[in-house]
Inverse folding.
DNA sequence: AAAATAATTGCAAAAAATTGCAAATAATAC
DNA sequence: GTATTATTTGCAATTTTTTGCAATTATTTT
């Protein structure tokens, strides 16, 4: 294995998990701990990660108790991202909307997963640049500064010209009877087009968004195929969402 | 076997597998490792791949995080950026290609300047997000990981649907008789479309790119309206570019 | 404080890169 | 057509880089 390749793998692990232990990395890339140590030292010098006693942590990730058992409690979005990734298979064509949940999912994508990703989100596309096996198709249009995604006729038109296997539809609010909703009219229009362009809809939502509504409706709750939250699927908070036609993850 | 053919095979292998080992390539194309090494060195210079100890890896495999992309010769680019900005007026509609020079220009844009910017570049668009008075229209399409801009038919089609006042056309090489040129075929196609979509063309180039040529031609030098370098317009290096129909800044 | 774990240093073997050079091949001029 | 020139290619000697190991030192945990 090439040194550069090895360092890239280590870096991806750090990006993915926010922290890595030195022996784990040595095991993963099949070299001695000394070599990994040197790699991490080098990456540290290049400011790609932060070298700490026992391993490395990702930059910008503040870890107050690295050595302790409770090293890092995954946040809600990471949990959702990990669950979402289980739905993916090599060769799929997917659509990712904007939002931090989808960004977290993009960040967590395994390096070896082969995908074609359509997205109107600048941050998501940028995040995906680091995935060598992901082909990125950016949906053009006017960029909405607030959400950093493209909206408007041009984007909607482009969406009418393809269809994908799976859409990960980030949303601001979800309610059993009112459905999915959003407070920005233009984004709602865009998301409606995304739904049309997708065979299956996955809705990754943080549980705090459950049972809330916004001014503009995107679609009925029946239109989604999978609901992903950070909660255990058996959690009572999700009771009312059971017995619907969609899966809960 | 022709050298160019051989290099193409190597490049395809890199694209396909994200990484190649030097001896494997030597075996594949039936030449000595020395020759492959030279090929890879050459391709590295042309930024088609990244040469590493023991082989090569694809540019896509390398992690870009473009907040941290170090803009080399930043000073020259800042000078060019400042000059370019003097051409701008409130209300104009402009087109910005990718490249570090245009990124620097985007960074330097005055906060109060009202513009509409079309761009196919993820880093440029991201940079422009910080400018409250700039409306951004992103040109959609497949994202080329190497250059972080969208390319391909979709992007070219979108470019055929509008026209702008001014295009800041970053380019890899400029030569008095050969014109503007680039080493990536797809990017050349995109830039040709950009030229068609623009009333006036501005070519911001670092002086070290003067009098160099690349494999694929973008356009004749007569097609540009303004040439911007970091040099004083009276500098003797620019003598041969005078008496042309374009301005020198 | 002692034990365990990790980091550093020096070192040597293996792998790879570089350099100079000559033969082979292709391109150009005559 | 031939001669000349430039480029490409492979080879050998040298230098550099990479890597694992062992001994020592530093840090953390019990």
């Amino acid at each position: 294995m090439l040194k550069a390749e090895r360092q890239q793998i280590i870096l991806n692990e750090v990006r993915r998990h926010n922290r890595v232990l030195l022996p784990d990395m040595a095991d993963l890339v099949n070299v001695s701990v000394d070599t990994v140590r040197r790699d991490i030292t080098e990456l540290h010098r290049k400011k790609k990660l932060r070298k700490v006693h026992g391993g490395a942590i990702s930059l910008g990730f503040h870890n107050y108790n690295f050595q302790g058992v409770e090293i890092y409690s995954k946040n809600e979005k990471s949990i959702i991202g990990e669950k979402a990734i289980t739905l993916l298979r090599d060769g799929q064509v997917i659509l990712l909307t904007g939002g931090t949940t989808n960004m977290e999912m993009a960040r967590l994508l395994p390096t070896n997963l082969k995908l074609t990703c359509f997205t109107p989100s600048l941050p998501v596309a940028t995040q995906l640049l680091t995935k060598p096996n992901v082909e990125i198709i950016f949906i053009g249009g006017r960029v909405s500064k607030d959400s950093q995604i493209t909206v408007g006729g041009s984007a909607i038109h482009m969406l009418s010209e393809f269809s994908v296997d799976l859409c990960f539809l980030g949303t601001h609010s979800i309610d059993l009877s009112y459905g999915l909703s959003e407070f920005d009219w233009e984004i709602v229009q865009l998301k409606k087009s995304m739904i049309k362009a997708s065979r299956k809809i996955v809705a990754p939502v943080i549980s705090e968004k459950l049972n809330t509504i916004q001014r503009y409706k995107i679609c009925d709750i029946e239109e989604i195929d999978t609901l992903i939250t950070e909660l255990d699927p058996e959690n009572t908070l999700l009771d009312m969402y059971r017995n619907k036609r969609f899966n809960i993850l």
